[in-house]
Amino acid sequence: MMKILSFVFFAVAVILSIVASPSSSPSSMFNSLVTSSASDNPFFTDDFYRDACPEAETTIRSTVIELFIKDRTIAPALIRLVFHDCFIEGCDGSVLLNATNGEAEKDQIPNQSLKGFDVIEQIKSRIESVCPSIVSCSDILVLAARESVYLSGGPFYPLRTGRRDSLSSFPKTALEDIPAPTDPLDSFLEKFSRRNFSLGETVCLLGAHSNGEVHCNFIKDRFSNFNGTGLPDPTIEQEFLNRTRAKCELDPTAFVDLRNEGAEQPGFGTHYFQGLVQNFGVLPSDQELMNSEKTASWVRAYASNQFLFMNDFSRAMIKLSEIGVLTGPQSGEIRSTCSAINQ
Ligand code: HEM
């Protein structure tokens, strides 16, 4: 009995350390949270900038905090930005590039409402002033998103650094592969599965929608003309439907809270999943998770277990932040401005 109790206490302590504050040593959480496959790479390590630019991570953290105090919406904007970067050809800062010839990733429809580019540029210019041409924009982005998750009430997770920036933008892939809010369930699950995310990891990552906002135009059809029927999506909870439809009809350019209008709890958390169980999902793709038992069972698991969600979200964000990284002197470059490749 004592053995079982001590095991339970140990397991709780480990989970607590994972969801603990940034003051917990990242390296002590590191082994428990990262996959071993990339650990042999000397160009992609824990605290890669320790000697070359020791100010890097603290400058990122202090700038994100400073800007977050003035405007809390930068946090969800940066979390969305890292997803749109890493999902397309890996975490290489390609989403940050401006078009030079034709269109860039950021000009494509799924990316036109992205925000936070100015925050990344601001951090980059502060870092360049202390250690020029050392810290990549792709590392700045994943680290700034990590700070944003934590500031929004989510977990703090360890991240390796040493990413380098891409020499191109991938507009066609962005157009085809960023999931749309109207995608059927199997279609967006397939996009995640191609990037090696399991069902549980995909459902968990969508928990990022517990925080942030959505333009009415992404959801208006769901509230009045679902799938061309001229009627609302029949699964929407009635009061929520009335409230949200009235808000969007009054001002079609308005934003609706992504975490769902029924949720009491602000910021990051399991209320997103609780909302889906009650048909309060805002994006059609979010509510789709309840349309199949294979994803609904994960939604219910996260809805009822905050530790499970925080722990799995940390792992899923680490995995997202390590997709297709460019490392080593032969790959990519360290941009001096995040919106343009070096001349
Ligand atoms: C099926 C997959 C997904 C779809 C269809 C989707 C779609 C969307 C849409 C349409 C918006 C609203 C954008 C706007 O109105 O400006 C949004 C916002 C957001 N998304 Fe996703 N998303 C998906 C997955 C993810 C993932 C995996 C993450 C992060 C890990 C994420 C993070 C966010 C955040 C934080 C916001 C709020 C942005 C803000 O308030 O500025 N999304 N998403």
From TrEMBL:
What span is annotated as the signal peptide, if there is one?
1-20
Task: Name the Pfam families on file.
Answer: peroxidase
| Major localization class | secreted
Question: What is a single cellular component term in the Gene Ontology annotation?
Answer: extracellular region
UniProt keywords, alphabetically: Calcium, Disulfide bond, Glycoprotein, Heme, Hydrogen peroxide, Iron, Metal-binding, Oxidoreductase, Peroxidase, Secreted, Signal
Q: Which cofactor does it need?
A: Ca(2+); heme b
A GO molecular-function annotation: lactoperoxidase activity
What residues does the Plant heme peroxidase family profile domain cover?
43-342
- Please tell me where heme b binds in this chain: 209
Residues annotated as binding Ca(2+) are: 85, 90, 92, 94, 105
Q: According to its UniProt record, which reaction does this protein catalyse?
A: 2 a phenolic donor + H2O2 = 2 a phenolic radical donor + 2 H2O
Q: Signal: present as a keyword of the record?
A: yes
- Which residue numbers mark the site Transition state stabilizer? 80
The name under which this protein is listed is Peroxidase
